Amino acid sequence: MKLYDLELSGNCYKVRLFAALANIELEIVPVDFMAGEHKSSVMLALNPFGQLPVLEHGEVVLRDSQAMLVYLARLYDLESWLPSDPQQMAEVQQWLSTAANEIQHGPNVARLVDKFGFEFDKPTALDISAGILTLLNDHLAEHDWLALGHPTIADCAVMPYVAIAPEGGISLDDYPHILAWIDRIKQLPGFIGMPGQV
């Protein structure tokens, strides 16, 4: 199973993190993003969106990090990470949607502007970030984990861009429950980090 990967991508890290925590073996294939390799004909054949990560498992090719987390959890029948019970699965899924929406358009966009020089609307990204980080901090004030009272793929999906939010000029000092949650994730057996993480 191959993961076409960029070390500095929070989306790629989500998959690496979950695989490490769940003892899933991945072949990491680094892609030279700065040289435009993600837009090469080979990579576009795998993912016409020209984005990373890409997961290749035999004839299965996936292009979205949240989808990859779901695929791996169900492929290996990891009930604790993604239950098959409809209500519990939905509780996890709603956080995957948060990762793909508010987290992606908030902390991630702010980091893309500051760290990589993308010309995105940073004031809007900061507004989105303030809203979702407040909501997340309030939720974590009453829960150790995002869903179901234990680690799930929800935590793997949401944590990466939150933990590197300072690279987008977003301090986490006002969000103590988020910081405590990140520390809990770091204590999980098999945890791996990524550059820039608090």
Automatic annotation (TrEMBL):
Keyword annotations: Transferase
CDD domains recorded: GST_C_7, GST_N_4
Limits of the GST C-terminal domain: 85-198
PROSITE patterns per the UniProt record, alphabetical: GST_CTER, GST_NTER
Keyword Heme: no
Molecular function in Gene Ontology: transferase activity
The keyword Transmembrane helix is annotated on this UniProt entry: no
Any Pfam family hit: GST_N
Membrane-spanning ranges: none
Segments forming domain GST N-terminal: 1-80
PANTHER family: GLUTATHIONE S-TRANSFERASE-RELATED, HYPOTHETICAL GLUTATHIONE S-TRANSFERASE LIKE PROTEIN
Family: Belongs to the GST superfamily.
Protein name as catalogued: Glutathione S-transferase
Species for this entry: Alteromonas alba
